[in-house]
């Protein structure tokens, strides 16, 4: 039997991080020819990931433009991917997650009648507009998918409820855990002298990330204000906020956090320094999806500053808590974790439901073993 030709498509930093371990496994797997295509929906942040994992794409669509709309991303990705698919004629196109690149990749493959594998399939928030447009992207991608690689049993159940066949759903764990094992190092040194100067052993560092479209405005202002006031309450607490590039996020952040003691607003970090910073932090406050999976594997409690999450497994396991965006709720939950050691350790020691670091091996094995039955 000839090699299985897999076209791996991704376009943003989170996709790149979660695809990288799969690419590394495929490089070592006989019987699979992997072709890598990036859309570069995000440019600079994606390039950082490629460098960390030593990945060189075969195709770079380079679609990023400042101020790009979702429609522009979709159409440029579709047109570019059509050319790549026709030229490479893959057996399987692999996408990951819920970005516009993911949906565009699946749609382009469908138009060319190419089988589709969806890594991180079956996540659902229950609200089509939150997160936006990610929830719609993942649902639309699911309709076109042949191999649903679901991280957890809960994700599998979501897919079964939507009518997808059980024999096309595979529980694998999440590849983000595989990626973490690749980059987190105990002796890691930051290039940023400010990060190296913080006393992580004697200070409790809150790591904050926030960028969701639906949080911009009053919700984000309330969140930041609650975090600021908590830092002021506890003299041993410091805040590190790698600030998003979005000008609206930056405006709110500087209005709330400027001239505050023990608050460090820094530029966005590459994946490697960011994960090592997370490993040294005391707890994480985030509206990110991926951090809800990553932080628990490092024993860090996560407060999720959103109204709903497509990752309920962490909430159910006790590794994360959904706190919403209102000032009082965010302040109260932070206060509990900083004042009650029992509550902190309960979250820090909860079992991470997102896997054991071998998801990539499972996915590649499933493609190898199952592709011949899906032709």
How is the main sheet built?
7 strands, parallel
Separate helix tally:
16
The H/E string reads EHEHEHEHEHEHEHHEHEHEHEHEHEHHH
CATH T-level fold name of the largest domain: Rossmann fold
Q: How do the strands of the widest beta sheet line up side by side? A: 3-2-1-4-5-6-7
**Mean of the pLDDT scores?**
94
**What is the CATH level 1 assignment of the largest domain?**
Alpha Beta
Separation of termini?
13 Å
In terms of per-residue confidence, which ranges show pLDDT below 50 for 5 or more consecutive residues? none
Structural class: alpha/beta
Rg measurement, Å: 20 Å
* Amount of helix: 40-55%
Topology diagram in text:
Layout (H helix, E strand, L loop, with lengths): L3 E7 L2 H15 L4 E7 L5 H9 L6 E2 L9 H19 L3 E5 L3 H12 L3 E5 L14 H11 L2 E4 L2 H9 L7 E3 L3 H9 L9 H5 L6 E6 L8 H16 L3 E6 L4 H11 L5 E4 L4 H10 L2 E4 L4 H7 L4 E3 L7 H6 L2 E3 L4 H13 L1 H8 L10 H16 L1
Parallel strand pairs: 1-2, 1-4, 2-3, 4-5, 5-6, 6-7, 8-9, 8-11, 9-10, 11-12, 12-13
